[in-house]
Specification:
The complex is a heterodimer of chains A (about 300) and B (about 250).
Chain A (H helix, E strand, L loop, with lengths): L12 H7 L5 E4 L9 H9 L5 E4 L2 E2 L1 H8 L3 E6 L1 E2 L8 H9 L3 E4 L2 H13 L3 E4 L6 H4 L9 E4 L6 E6 L5 E9 L5 E2 L7 H7 L2 E9 L2 H6 L13 E4 L17 H10 L3 H13 L4 H8 L1 H7 L8
Parallel strand pairs in A: 1-2, 1-10, 2-4, 3-5, 4-6, 10-12, 12-13
Antiparallel strand pairs in A: 7-9, 8-9, 10-11
Chain B lengths: L1 H6 L6 E4 L3 H11 L6 E4 L3 E2 L21 E2 L2 H10 L5 E4 L3 E2 L5 E2 L2 E2 L7 E2 L6 H7 L2 E5 L25 H4 L7 E5 L3 E5 L6 E6 L5 H6 L12 E2 L5 H10 L11
Parallel strand pairs in B: 1-2, 1-5, 5-10, 10-11, 13-14
Antiparallel strand pairs in B: 3-4, 6-7, 8-9, 11-12, 12-13
Helix pairs in contact in B: 2-7
The chains are: A alpha/beta (about 300), B alpha/beta (about 250).
């Protein structure tokens, strides 16, 4: 039997961010504190990207730093906060300044919009949003949603437009060089979101041998057919969490939250942890091995 | 509030919740009268037996001895919209007399003063769960005549407006605050005082409510939390993250 050559899709974090042009539309992976592509957000800020549009369900500190650094100007999403702590500080300021715009949907609506994009159909029906301002209040979309009577039953349903962003950015547990992806714990909306993007960049905590993936094919949640590039990125979600890998760094998050209540505080944070370091390794060195080891997941817990 | 929320859960219910007080309420229910309740977190953890208190609905802590770890499309789409969720818990920054909820903006839409978290799954839950329990603090600026933004549907404009608009779920059944519990008049769908917490007067509730609240001729006092419930609450939230230790 002739063995197929293994396609190696690995690129560096810097190269991956470089591919994303100003003005691009991005699906942004992770959900809440779980697996946000923090390292990618840092790199987009270091490369001074501008005018990006983000599509996601719910995000936290990751979107707050992107809005703080003026990388993102438009968002279509359902939720953001720093859960258990408070409202996102930078985003509050950017909204008041009028430099970012948000089109609000629900979590189900967003995940269906990604599923629709992945399926190649222009819209998806759902039973949320009916009777509320989510249907009628729009910021920048000429049409945000439409209520129709079902042509078969007459029942009222809401249609939301599908999304096919230029790039899907997902941070996963493990991936092989060909781009077969395993995700431990909850998947959020990453399964649909990764399939909706025209190009898909997968960051992962570990690059594993393809034989490992092929020894447990039922664990592959995103097959390599969808994946354009693979980036090895351990601790890629710090100070947020990755299931089975590490816990959130609440000390860091609380410090961020307190400091970013003022623009000066945010500028100082950004300089200290993002623009003032050359790359992810330098950032992790700054956090320090001792701290990172304390956050490492302890079996049988995933945190 | 946590105890009232807990008592609203029936044994065997599929309960859809976020973090914070609803999570504490659901864990309390599981350890008391409703051990068969199944807790679903929208991020994807199913029937969690979390040992430690979680900060995020996607928190890895919720994965401990859970029966499943899936995704949003399944929890909000297949489980919730598919009709498998008995009771959903939500919070509110503002609520009106029909139980409609705002969690998006304070101030005018064109120039808001505060951006709140948004719907998240809140609108999905209030649209499609069979019953809804709202947990919130009771203040005049929160119990309002008119919402700044209608994020999640209660009974909309009352009477049968909710059914007519095509929503699947049953709408709000209970609003729990730090002062009282309220339910809804079956016909007009207007909010009605059900019980006042021990030490709270009806007058105090009315002074803290901007909209017109229905007050029946007889309003009972809320049953006091039992010693066992209080002890369990301390065990569930030992550091007082969601239940402040004032007493």
């Amino acid at each position: 039997m002739v063995e197929a050559p293994v396609e190696d899709k690995r690129i560096s974090l810097e190269e991956a961010a470089k591919i994303v042009p100003d003005g691009a539309h991005l699906f942004w992976g992770g959900f809440g504190f779980q697996r946000p592509p923090m390292a990618f957000a840092h790199e987009l800020i270091r490369q001074r990207k501008r005018d990006l549009t983000i599509y996601t369900c719910g995000s936290e500190m990751d979107l707050d730093i992107l809005c703080g650094a003026r990388v993102v100007s438009r968002l279509e999403l359902a939720f953001f906060a720093i859960e258990g702590i408070g409202l996102v500080p930078n985003i509050q300021r950017r909204i008041r300044e009028g430099t970012i715009e948000i089109e609000d949907y629900t979590n189900l609506a967003m995940s269906l919009r990604f599923l629709g994009g992945a399926l190649g159909v222009p819209f998806m029906p759902l039973k949320s949003m009916l009777g509320t301002d989510l249907l009628t209040r729009t910021r920048f979309r000429p049409k945000k949603a439409e209520v129709i009577s079902c042509p078969f039953t007459g029942e009222r349903v809401v249609l939301v437009p599908s999304v096919q962003p230029d790039f899907s950015i997902v941070h996963a547990s493990r991936v092989d060089v060909e781009g077969n992806v395993q995700i431990d714990g909850i998947k959020g909306e990453d399964v649909e979101g990764a399939r909706a993007g025209k190009k898909v960049i997968v960051m992962a905590e570990e690059i594993v041998d393809s034989e490992f993936i092929r020894s447990q094919p039922d664990q592959t949640v995103i097959p390599n057919i969808y994946v354009t590039h693979v980036v090895e990125c351990p601790w890629g979600s710090h100070p947020m969490m990755v299931y089975n890998y590490y816990d959130y760094d609440m000390e860091h998050v609380r410090k961020y939250y307190e400091q970013c209540k003022t623009e000066e505080g945010w500028q100082k944070y950004c300089e200290e942890y993002i623009t003032g370091v050359r790359n992810r390794t330098e950032f992790l060195n700054k956090i320090g091995l001792e701290r990172l080891m304390k956050l490492k997941a302890k079996k049988p817990f995933a945190y | 509030m946590a105890v009232c929320g807990s008592r609203a859960i029936r044994n065997g219910d599929v309960v859809f919740i976020g973090t914070g007080l609803p999570m504490v309420a659901a864990l309390l229910a599981k350890r008391t009268h409703a051990p068969g309740a199944k807790i679903v977190f929208e991020a994807g953890f199913i029937d969690s037996n979390a040992k430690d208190i979680a900060l995020s609905i996607a928190d890895s802590r919720l994965g401990y001895r859970a029966s499943g770890a899936i995704g949003l499309f399944e929890t909000l789409g297949l489980m919730l919209q598919g009709g498998h969720v008995d009771v959903g818990f939500v919070g509110a920054a503002q609520i009106d007399k029909y139980g409609n909820i705002n969690t998006t903006y304070i101030g005018p839409f064109e120039k808001p003063t505060v951006r709140l978290p948004g719907s998240g799954g809140g609108n999905d839950i209030t649209s499609s769960a069979k019953r809804i329990v709202v947990i919130m603090t009771h203040e005049k600026r929160k119990m309002v005549n008119k919402l700044d933004y209608l994020t999640s549907p209660g009974f909309l404009t009352g009477q049968s407006a909710r059914e007519k608009t095509g929503l699947l779920g049953g709408g709000p059944s209970l609003v729990v605050t730090n002062l009282c519990q309220m339910d809804f008049d079956p016909k007009t769908k207007c909010m009605r005082l059900a019980t006042v917490h021990p030490g709270v007067s009806i007058q105090q509730v009315l002074e803290s409510t901007e909209f017109e609240l229905i007050v029946p001729t007889r309003v009972a006092a809320t049953d006091c939390p039992m010693r066992e419930e209080l002890e369990l609450l301390r065990a569930i939230d030992p550091d007082g993250i969601y239940i402040p230790r004032t007493k």
